[in-house]
Amino acid sequence: MAEPVTLSRKDFSSDQEVRWCPGCGDYSVLTAVQLLLPEIGILPQNQVFVSGIGCSSRFPYYMNTYGVHSIHGRAPAFATGIAAARPDLDVWVVTGDGDGLSIGGNHLIHALRRNINITILMFNNQIYGLTKGQYSPTSEVGKVTKSTPFGSIDHPFNPISVALGAEASFVARTHDMDRKHMTEVFRRANAHQGASFVEIYQNCNVFNDGAFDAVVAKDSRADMLIDLHHGEKIVFGADGEHGVMLDEFGEAHVVSVADVGLEKILVHDEQRPEPSLAFALSRLASGPYEPTPVGIFRAIERPSYEIELSRQLAAVQERGGAPDLDGLLGSGNVWEVV
Amino acid sequence: MSPDNAEQQATEVLERVVIRFAGDSGDGMQLVGDRFTDVSAAFGNDLATLPDYPAEIRAPAGTIAGVSSFQVHIAGTDIVTPGDAPNLLVAMNPAALKANINDLMPGGAIIANSDAFETRNLDKAGYLGNPLEDGSLAAYRLYSIPMTSLTLEAAKGTGAKPRDAERSKNFFALGLIAWMYTRPTEAITGWIAEKFGKNQIVHDANVAALKAGYNFGETAEIFEHAYTVPSAHLPAGRYRNITGNLATAYGLIAAGHQAKLPLFLASYPITPASDILHELSKHKRFGIRTVQAEDEISAAGMAIGAAYAGHLAVTTTSGPGVDLKSEAMGLAVSIELPLLLIDVQRGGPSTGLPTKTEQADLMLAMYGRHGEAPLPIVAAYSPSHCFDAVLEGARIALKYQTPVMILTDGYLANGSEPWLLPAAADLPDISVKFQTEPNGTGPDGEPKYMPYLRDPITLARPWAIPGTPGLMHRVGGIEKQDVTGNINYEPSNHEKMTHLRAAKIAGIANDIPPLPVDDPSGEAELLVLGWGSTWGAIQAGARRLRANGVNVAHAHLMHLNPFPANLGEVLAKYPKVLIPEMNLGQLSRLVRAEYLVDAKSLTKVQGLPFRAAEIEAKMLEMING
């Protein structure tokens, strides 16, 4: 065994100038990741960051790791190829709401379904930033943008519900105003074996400033963010006065703990194999203007694609013996001409 | 079941014969064709096959649209095509007869399943009367045989219910044809045992039908005699019969082996390319990773990801799939990674003719990406040549760190021919070295990896894979600075990079063999220039003319981008140039633009390969014109 290497943020920072707009929420995510990686202890050469197209997709250029800035929406596909070919690597996907949920929605759900071992960071700013301000698949109905001067008539996706609908084995939400929360969610997501999906509420201060203020501003958080903790009652508010309860249909509602009694308050179980409960939690808020759950919705174990692929290969190789190219080419009916 | 009454029935020796099995798509004609091909190959005949089947899994039974056929040309001499016109047509129903009769050679033989020629089937095929009885087939030798009832009779005692037993009639036909052409049937019964061994009743019914067909030929005295096609004098060595798709799959396995790299295939099912995915999925023993992606785009993305990670990466597709992969191919051109895209061309545009052949993707391969995005193109010219084309494509991809498009087509994919087996030890070593050390110096004077510092000769950039300490780098679709690979938008840098990417591909011309010209007399005035699967028909046409003392030259391009360095010189030597293509003249346009020669185009877009006679006629017209 080699001596343990002490790594620092510098080891994960490339020499490229970071070029997001001043004040962009992306900076704090980059910082959180660059500070987390030395703690995880996986060497930079074994890390690969893969992105699509959009503001957040510039992320790999700023990491002193291996990286691919691929094409619009397809980062999960590129990452799947890397992870399936090389299970020894730690593979991350950086995407946005337009990249991941609009043009690349198909790849996202299939990567989650397949449960390939990648960590997906989905920066949700509810706007197209790089193309300068069109509505995105997470923008609210009525949103006035350059492409919707009379207000958007498109119903938005709830990214957590989409991920749970695809039966993702790890689903979480965090936001760019709380580095500690981000760090802990990223740490868990990265340690998870299989596809992890993390939605990050990220402020675009140029085209959609303050989109999440109602829930993430410091003085709003206590009453508007529902921090999920496995095995604990789901309560929030400065004094834990609000809670979450299921009704007879299995739908989740915010209630007053005093009104219903603490025993009626739901205990969070991120490990339930069946995703319905996590899905119910994902439906609590229809947008970042109501009390919104953050933290880990679901973290279950199920076989991951690259491990199963390697296992099949190993099993066949053990049974079949050494590969024999001449034997293969000459299989079937062979005849000799003299 | 060797003929024991050979004294009474002398066999007639034929140099060659073309047989077409035709029936409903549920009649098992492809299976019968495959089996007949297999025994003929083992018998030592040279051969070529042409399967032709509808896109629908089960088109309405009895209709023309539902007709499936398999043509096989067997010969005692070296042959290059599945034959222009069948000598024998096996028609399992009226629709099969109607759909194929016009192709039959004048005076050729028809073996028809008379049981199927009843009113309903005749109506479906659009016959007013029964052609087996109304004298309309007088120009042919007609053998009406009640194959269904004879099969049912033969299967009695096997326990098969009549409806199931009826399905064995294709084996009756096979048995009969095996007798007609003195093929041994042991290999067929062996195959039936292997395939149907688990279902005793089906197995027994098939064997009974096969024997009944064979014995019918021998005893029924409706055939004058049996025929034999002697084994061909092919070059010495070990042979097997192989289809283009199988040769492609084997070529990929061999390429991984010769590159000393794990093979990675990501693919989305599409006709007629899926068999390559199926085949490679079987051979995990060779460490091959196959992923069935969620779509064509993803398949290309996964393959590029695997290439970045250091595997020999491949994606396989056809027509519409190539369109979908275009953006990913542009990225592969930009980030300069080795990648193979195999396009088994089919009739287009759009869904087009999924099961039929065409070679109309040449311009797509050349130019089907936005921006200046050149990539090498290699085309296979016969089923077994797919193996060589893939190996050559992989060599270029690795050496030049570039995506390569390999073009085959539906005819090559499903057609077959004998293949002289190469020895693994004789295959070229196509391995390349990964970059393991920094190759430059950073602004701070420290050693640094420069991902776009090119090899001065090949202009290839180094290949440093994740896991390599100290060589962490990012690649992406944004224009890169020469040498450093950093994002760069400077006008002069973009121009330089555009020229470098073009020069890298153009330079491959110095690394491929000069185009050989087949011009035995050296006095031909006409050069026929081809590419891809037209090879067989052009060769056959040229050989026929030469046999009649007419000189014609044939050259066939395997490398379509870049062209071989001597192509201009070859073209300049001939006053007349003909380019036959299964498209509307794509190579001819490229050649005319590049070399300013007045190349004439001969085109065919029927979803079917050229016949040798069609090319022969055009050659004669040009020679005499």
From TrEMBL, chain A:
It holds the Pfam family TPP_enzyme_C. Residues 53-200 form the Thiamine pyrophosphate enzyme TPP-binding domain. Keywords: Oxidoreductase. One of its GO terms (biological process) is cellular respiration. GO terms for molecular function: oxidoreductase activity, acting on the aldehyde or oxo group of donors, iron-sulfur protein as acceptor; thiamine pyrophosphate binding. This is Unannotated protein. It comes from freshwater metagenome.
